[in-house]
Amino acid sequence: MVVAAVAELWKHNEEIVTLLKNNYDLLIAAFLAVAATFLVSKSWSKGGARSIDVPGRLGLPFIGETLAFLSATNSFKGCYEFVNLRRSRYGKWFKTRLFGKIHVFVPTTEGARKIFTNDFSYFNKGYVKSMADCVGPKSLLSVPHESHKRIRRLLSDPFSMPSLATFVVKFDQLLSQRLARLARNGDSFKVLEFSMQMTFDAMCSMLMSVTEESLLREIEKDCTAVSEAMLSLPVMIPGSRYYRGIKARERVMERFSGMIERRRSGVESHEDFLQSMLAKDSYPSTEKLEDAEIMDNLLTLIIAGQTTTAAAMMWSVKFLNDNRDAQDRLREEQLAITRKKADDYVLSLEDINSMSYGLKVVKETLRMSNVLLWFPRVALNDCTVDGKFFPLDYRIEIKKGWHVNIDATCIHYDPVLYKDPLQFNPSRFEEMQKSYSFIPFGSGPRTCLGMNMAKVTLMVFLHRLAGGYKWTMDDLDLSLEKKSHIPRLRSGCPITLKAL
Ligand code: HEM
Prior knowledge:
Elements: H1 2-11, H2 13-22, H3 24-46, E1 50-52, E2 56-57, H4 66-73, H5 80-90, E3 94-98, E4 101-106, H6 109-117, E5 123-124, H7 129-135, H8 145-155, H9 161-185, E6 189-190, H10 191-208, H11 213-229, H12 241-264, H13 273-278, H14 291-322, H15 324-339, H16 349-353, H17 356-369, E7 375-379, E8 383-389, E9 392-398, E10 403-406, H18 408-412, H19 451-468, E11 469-473, E12 494-499
Parallel strand pairs: 1-9, 2-3, 4-10
Antiparallel strand pairs: 3-4, 5-7, 6-12, 7-10, 8-9, 11-12
Helix pairs in contact: 7-12, 9-19, 10-14, 11-12, 12-14, 14-17, 14-19, 15-17, 15-19
Bound molecules: protoporphyrin IX containing FE.
Protoporphyrin IX containing FE (HEM) is lined by residues 140-141, 152, 203, 300-301, 304-305, 308-309, 312, 366, 371-372, 375, 440-442, 446, 448-450, 453-454.
């Protein structure tokens, strides 16, 4: 056999020599390219990865590229267009200057790991005065490391499994009634408006048992004003966003304080988050929250939970509408659950745990919608962040005071991590994800506190929607809302429901 193969090769010897002669230039070039890659990667790996400066344009002092950023934020393409444009100019890593600060957008899982695992030590959330003024000095978003750890631990009660089980029942009852009413009316309605109200009402009921419609709307109006002022110019000029937000905060705090007083005096008592906090009044100070901590964090939970969850609900409707196979498969799974139940059933946490395809739809929705586009941190010292660009490793130099934005959107759309990233394909989550490649809730000590609550809320929503109805989209416009840092359809995603 071997002899025959050598004879065959010899027969073609002359052809091979001619081929080599004719492509001499090509061969030399290929040889040089291989040698250069080998030498460079060798020399880089010798002393570890090399440090490189990030490309990008810093522009004029202070102003930098702020105007371009504001113009993107103020367009129907959304503020991430600013990032997309720079990435097409400079590559995956780039830096820019916004509002006087240098920002580096961190597009890799290695970079995300470095920042998340060193949160509070090498990096911290940037202090934004308007944000701290709005949510309050005792909010999880404002406090320093030590208080953060304690407050986070003491706030975890409403997110425990027994509390989530109660939440699922309440949310399911509220949601199924409201969807049934909308389907009976047969009118078109905006999913975004609906989901904003649903999440707000459900959270107020869970946190402090507020269920009266007019009171809910008043508190919601104030919370929205506070939320809108979080990123504004912090000057108290009557009529400005900041002024309206601070005034709204004062009213909210007054309400919360009244509620606490009524509960302490025994006039009111409920089974909810607020009551569980007040039940610790006689505990040592390390094991309870002060009133100011309770109030600032009630507000923080509402603001952090409402807009995010509502936006994800809206995107799930849009993605499922555009991907009928996924919608059919989801419906089949949900109907299998419904068939085992009585007519007026209410979902339980066990039902939620059995929705394996539903969970994948939730994950794929969060991957593609990127409710929080990037997560900002500030470098507390000069440092480097690891990058990778096959076959080379490199370190990106970051200076003290620079802002590093973990770019969850870029990571979630990276074709190396997600095949056909623009395709809505929940089944991709059958495979294990690489660490830090799926980060819609962040990671590390600041991981979203409401992560499980958000997931079960979305699963109940998908169950009731796909298992109970079909729908038509009444506006196909893809433009995004202006001036919003959470991507949301400008149309609000209007649909009409038809019961199955
Ligand atoms: C789909 C819905 C949600 C998404 C995508 C989301 C996403 C996130 C992300 C990415 C962070 C970390 C940000 C960072 O590292 O800078 C975060 C933090 C936080 N989230 Fe959520 N969230 C959602 C729903 C909720 C809900 C329902 C609540 C509460 C009811 C909540 C409460 C919080 C709080 C309190 C923090 C601050 C945690 C800390 O600093 O320790 N979130 N969220």
